[in-house]
Task: inverse folding
């Protein structure tokens, strides 16, 4: 089977639809292709569909010179633009059989549907969308849909989540931010030892120019879509013997046997 994995999008519609078209999963009208609807494949988005990652990206999103999140008109336009994007993604998923497309819960998505959690910040911009006292209420249908997203998924011996391999890595309570739970990537530890998983695939931790590896080479970090026109998605061919992992957007092509992952994937060439 084929598995296509896309990292954090952060409300970049053009980038998402371009990747889906390049992968042969969406047509020119952003509808699922026959392969997406009927082929032996799965599509996984690693979460964080909402909240633009910089003030400049918000400005582009609502077509203003400088975005001001404390300007009610700017904030409302940012909410509406993101809700339109979310409806388009939901419409795409609704055209598919259950299980063909999985969207994982990211910490920004969780924040968007948790009114009593304070606003997040990215660098110089606060994400005030849908927050009491600042923004409007998120469309209830969209809030219910986002709240249904799982926190992890397993596909043929691969573990996929937004942040990391352990449940606490993907639990977005206050301690998530106090403890900086992305620090697991620095541990000299194989988080998959004794587990049923051969590899893990995660987003959240920004990567420039490709992909990082962690957990002694058994985890790929794929938050690669937040830098200008950079884009990368992971295309995995899964067979009885192993996994062929290819990163589209830069050179990376590795074959990993199912039964011997002692060395893990090599670092990519850029």
Result:
């Amino acid at each position: 089977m084929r598995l296509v994995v896309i990292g954090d999008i952060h409300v970049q519609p053009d980038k998402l639809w371009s990747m889906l078209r390049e992968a042969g999963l969406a047509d020119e009208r952003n509808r699922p292709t026959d392969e997406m609807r009927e082929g032996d494949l799965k599509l996984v988005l690693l979460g964080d569909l909402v909240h633009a990652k910089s003030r400049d990206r918000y400005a582009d999103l609502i077509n203003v010179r400088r975005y001001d999140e404390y300007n009610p008109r700017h904030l409302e336009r940012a909410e509406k633009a993101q809700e339109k994007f979310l409806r388009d993604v939901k419409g795409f998923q609704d055209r598919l059989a259950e299980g063909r497309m999985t969207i994982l819960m990211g910490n920004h998505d969780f924040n968007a549907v948790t009114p009593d959690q304070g606003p997040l910040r990215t660098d110089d911009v606060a994400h005030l969308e849908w927050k009491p006292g600042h923004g409007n209420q998120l469309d209830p249908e969209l809030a219910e849909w986002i709240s249904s997203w799982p926190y992890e998924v397993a596909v043929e011996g691969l573990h996929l989540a937004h942040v990391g391999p352990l449940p606490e890595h993907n639990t977005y309570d206050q301690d998530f931010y106090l403890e900086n739970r992305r620090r697991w990537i620095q541990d000299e530890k194989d988080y998959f030892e004794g587990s049923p998983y051969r590899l893990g695939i995660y987003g959240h931790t920004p990567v420039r120019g490709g992909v990082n590896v962690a957990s002694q080479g058994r985890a790929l970090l794929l938050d690669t879509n937040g830098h200008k026109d950079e884009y990368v998605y992971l295309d995995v061919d899964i067979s009885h013997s192993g996994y062929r992992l290819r990163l589209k957007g830069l050179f990376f092509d590795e074959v990993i046997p199912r039964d011997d992952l002692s060395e893990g994937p090599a670092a990519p060439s850029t």
